[in-house]
Give the backbone structure.
Amino acid sequence: MCLPPVVFRGTIVATVKLWSDDEVAASPVVKAVFEDIRATRKSDFVNNFWRALANQPAVLERTWASVKQVMVAPGALDPLTKELVYIAVSTVNSCSYCVHSHTAAARAKGMTDEQYAEFLAVIGMAAETNTLANAMQIPVDREFMLE
Amino acid sequence: MCLPPVVFRGTIVATVKLWSDDEVAASPVVKAVFEDIRATRKSDFVNNFWRALANQPAVLERTWASVKQVMVAPGALDPLTKELVYIAVSTVNSCSYCVHSHTAAARAKGMTDEQYAEFLAVIGMAAETNTLANAMQIPVDREFMLE
Amino acid sequence: MCLPPVVFRGTIVATVKLWSDDEVAASPVVKAVFEDIRATRKSDFVNNFWRALANQPAVLERTWASVKQVMVAPGALDPLTKELVYIAVSTVNSCSYCVHSHTAAARAKGMTDEQYAEFLAVIGMAAETNTLANAMQIPVDREFMLE
Amino acid sequence: MCLPPVVFRGTIVATVKLWSDDEVAASPVVKAVFEDIRATRKSDFVNNFWRALANQPAVLERTWASVKQVMVAPGALDPLTKELVYIAVSTVNSCSYCVHSHTAAARAKGMTDEQYAEFLAVIGMAAETNTLANAMQIPVDREFMLE
Amino acid sequence: MCLPPVVFRGTIVATVKLWSDDEVAASPVVKAVFEDIRATRKSDFVNNFWRALANQPAVLERTWASVKQVMVAPGALDPLTKELVYIAVSTVNSCSYCVHSHTAAARAKGMTDEQYAEFLAVIGMAAETNTLANAMQIPVDREFMLE
Amino acid sequence: MCLPPVVFRGTIVATVKLWSDDEVAASPVVKAVFEDIRATRKSDFVNNFWRALANQPAVLERTWASVKQVMVAPGALDPLTKELVYIAVSTVNSCSYCVHSHTAAARAKGMTDEQYAEFLAVIGMAAETNTLANAMQIPVDREFMLE
């Protein structure tokens, strides 16, 4: 016997509708963003994050413009480093969606198992020492301050 | 003119004593760890984090051994990438001490202003999208899952 | 083929029993709180939060009394504003249950799609600037301080 | 009597230089943003957040454009409600700078002591119930889900 | 030599006035709570948390009543265990005030240096494994679920 | 009709493979750790956390060594107190896996329903007062500081 799909945790449904491709096609603003996402990423797949944001066209446009500028455009950090930093933030913010999507992105950008293992060691270590420093309220050394 | 001392926040003192070099010298366990820190880092400076942990010799030894293995030993990620990931975690955990010490460490390892600017853009972007994804409880795309 | 219900994520089951109406009826203290919840909300539906708290009658009583005083009684802020603030806190605390229940409550209190879109923009913006300010450890301007 | 400077926490200095008005005047990009901030807010005062971001002109421009769109432009939520939501997020993210600046902003936008008292009650209540719901891993009621 | 006052962080002042004993004496509601705090704790000292909450008499009354019931009344957990749990929550929430006040309270209730050292080891360990489990999104074992 | 298992939330699958006993048997390093876990706990059951960490043998070895030293070896705090502190940290870090596993561990170590109820009251109270103290940026009393 199985439970009907509606029974599973609320989190399998979002607080907003996820837009289908047909619904996207009917909204010029959303359609334009989705086309740019597909063109920029050279892939037809548009993930749920954007399908949820489609309910807020102004937020969708601004967020995609920022993501494109920050994560896609070439910059001073290589793409994999940026994904690792992104996963780190997402993990501490306990964003399950973001951890999954950016871990997948890091793998797509070439992250090896050795790199992932070392990344995990670093974020675990950081969380441990963060907690110790916050618990003991350690004052910052003068040597670390920008003069 | 100066404000009287009572005005300053409690956080200027730690919840534990910060060990001076004389106190360190009097404890064989702590002394050994401090000597290894100095030898490993090729520097006489030992920062307050270790001077606070000195009150808990077992935690001090284990933590330094882990930090040495994770952050100092050569691995699959370059040292600057690991520092950036460390700052990211520390920022989200709101650890003032750790943000200062690891931003200083990143600079010491060659982080340029351009890299820091891009790093800031990434963590800001990540925090924003984390919050949006958590607020809308977006379900993870099947495409992101490990088969 | 389907997996049997017990297979799905642990989070579909709580760490405590969720009390059924029959179990509630058998405990005078819990029964009284549930009757007050139903009377106050003018609805028969009592959500899982209270069915879980029923295992801790003293916590149940105190928490309901506080919620009633803070969220239900008329005050200086309108009910929708309070729900938006509640969702904001719940999102940053990554409380999936609370995000769902208070987003539903905000909708029930008249939140429009435009208001929700703007709310999402604000919490995303706040999270981004929080992260930037914490990463750069920006000192508070004297102008913001209460004299 | 004053404590010597070495006693004060590292957090009194930022990890980046705070730009003076002279430095701002020497950079066309930063100058343009600062002039827009002053014109938009009808005030000469530009707070430290922007003086720190000035080190990252691209982040400065994008962040100010977003803040202007989200927080300044008229929308579906009134300005005070947006400030309250902003303080809520900043408090949970433990951003001292942001709590101070947005509490000051809320007061400037007319927040009364009664409203602040009620706001505090709501965020305290939310944090308490978030923690209870996360500790008991309460499953989301079907009634809260978007059909 | 001292630094000029402008150098110090905003966090040295609160967002609200801290009530003096004279101000407390002039408000019957606040006065009653303060007298109960002093009588319950058998001490004249009333810490800043209550002096800040005095601005919100309804929140003050409710919060003190809860603290008295939860932390002061005898219960199923011994007082030191409750303080340790309180510090743990406060540390992860990065509440500097709460870490200081409850670490002092734990010491006043007999916490030894050995206990504090072990407590620090536990919270550091927990933070590390939390981060690893969240990063890898590990599914909960069926064995851990309440049947 | 049921959805096929792959459809449920991403979180039912990890970002890494969970090692089966056969896979463990084929890796000497992992096998040794698993044997020590089984011997130390006097139980054949090895939970998913270790099966996920098996992908990173160095992290697995170091983490188990730390857990064994901190949580298993006799110390200054009794085992149940340590589990309660562990759950507290895990709850605030919103680690669903850790909340489930350590709540189960606390029960296995004798936690009564009364103790759990009181524990819940404490963490809820702490989260509430943390939020109030952070929102009002209350300065630490000199009385709480270590002289």
